[in-house]
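With this grant's support, the team has encoded backbone shapes as discrete tokens. A representative record is reproduced below.
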Amino acid sequence: MASTSVSRVVPASPDKVWSLIGGFDTLPDWLPYILESTALEGGRVRRLTNPDGDVIAERLVDFNEAERHYSYAILEAPFPVNGYVSTLRVHAVPGRDGVAEVQWSGRFHADGATEDEVVALFTGIYADGLDALHKTLAA
């Protein structure tokens, strides 16, 4: 099983960051790659659409409001993986008020691509996503 993780310090308190990204159906609010998100099954599944019109369906598998993190599994996507589970987490930065660290990590099996290719794909997605989050919070 392959894995990757990307972290960024962003210019907002952990509570403010979590209020933006902590909703499972809020990706279009901060991630330009996702144009639309539709909540299904009482909010436990999200159906996402990207700029190419691809559909990505994901199921919420863990949610912790107090610790500010959630995990999800891909049900359907154009990515060459299976067994994909990812976690988005917000941390306080000790001694630094007004900023937070956001970590986006995932583990998966390559399927139709090499492990290195899939790790590079998701490392890029996470890095680009966290860069977009930083820009949204800095605006």
